[in-house]
Structures are given as structure tokens and as C-alpha cells.
Amino acid sequence: MTRTIVHLLRHGEVFNPRHVLYGRLPGFHLSEAGLLMAKRAAEALTGHDVVLVLSSPLERARETAEPVAARFGVPVEIDERLIEATNAFEGQRVGDGALRRPRSWWLVRNPWRPSWGEPYVEVAARMWAAVQDARRRAAGHEAVCVSHQLPIWTVRRMLERRPLWHHPGRRQCALGSITSLVFDDEAVVAVTYAEPSGRAGIGELAGA
């Protein structure tokens, strides 16, 4: 039996003074606190047997992956499947009432899909494919996949056989958190969760 662990690391805090839903928009980098979160995540993984570091192509994820890769002496490889979910409210300040405007009502008609962005089933499928590839490549060791809150939480719900639709404010996936999937051969035998930087970012909207 081969034990492999795939760690799903959420990126650190982003510099976002306008408080927009940045989604897949380019140009959003880690804040000073976010850089510290990335370092704490790397420190939390000290002593682990990490041989592979994969990252979403977005800047905040790559910057979070760098301290981890440096600690284990491996390169950061980009996996497009780890990217944030699409969101029709990208670039808007949803806290300013964007969700209540009449022109937005069609977008929020079906929260179970969800109607405003990439379907949960598609997010779960691409994330699971990325995790499976990471497991195969790191067989017998550990891999780190740096991604985003919604993709990580969605694939976790799939593995725990829970409905994929959910309330964004109830996600257990803080900034800089590590959700670890433990495999014996191809079977997931445990899911663990750690917050090296505390509960920062809990309850943010999709697109974080």
C-alpha cells in the first residue's frame, strides 16, 4: 500500500484596497500579510516529504507557492485546473449592492448551480483531476497544490459526499489554510485541515 498526501493550500491575503471581487483578473498580488501567510504555510509543512509543488496560474497563488517550493528545493509548476472559478461579478464591489440590482437578478436565479459562474460540478471535476495527477506524480510522498477558496472547498465537499452547493460564508478554508487529502493507493482515507495563519478570510464570497 502506498501512502501519498496532497495538500491543498489556499493563497494568502491579497492587496485589494478597492475590495472588488477579483476572481481571475490579472494584477492582484499578495499583500504584506499575504506574503507572511505564505511563509507560515511553508513553515507548517517543514518536515513533510514534499516533492511536487503545483500552482494556479494567478499571481496570488504563484506567490504563495514560492516559499513552499523554495523550502523543498523544487520548482513551482503551473496547473491551469487549479485556477479560481469564473464569476460574472468579477471586478465589482459586491458589498455595494451589486447582487440586489435588477440587472443582476438573472445571474443569481439559481444558487445551486451556481448561475453566476462556473458550475460546482465542473469546478469539482477539474480540481479532482488535478489532485489525481498530483497524487500519481508524488506517489509515496507529498504534493502541494496552491489554489483558491471555492475550488478547494468544492472538491472537499465532493470527497465528503456532501452537496456541492453551499453558503459561501460557511466555508472552512481560511487564507493560507492547508486542506490535506491522505491517500492509501488511490483511496482517500482522511481529510485534515490546518490554519497556520489563523482564521483569516473565513466567510468570504466566491472569487477569493
TrEMBL record:
<dbReference type="InterPro" id="IPR029033">
    <property type="entry name" value="His_PPase_superfam"/>
</dbReference>
<dbReference type="InterPro" id="IPR013078">
    <property type="entry name" value="His_Pase_superF_clade-1"/>
</dbReference>
<protein>
    <submittedName>
        <fullName>Phosphoglycerate mutase</fullName>
    </submittedName>
</protein>
<dbReference type="GO" id="GO:0016791">
    <property type="term" value="F:phosphatase activity"/>
</dbReference>
<dbReference type="InterPro" id="IPR050275">
    <property type="entry name" value="PGM_Phosphatase"/>
</dbReference>
<dbReference type="GO" id="GO:0005737">
    <property type="term" value="C:cytoplasm"/>
</dbReference>
<dbReference type="Pfam" id="PF00300">
    <property type="entry name" value="His_Phos_1"/>
</dbReference>
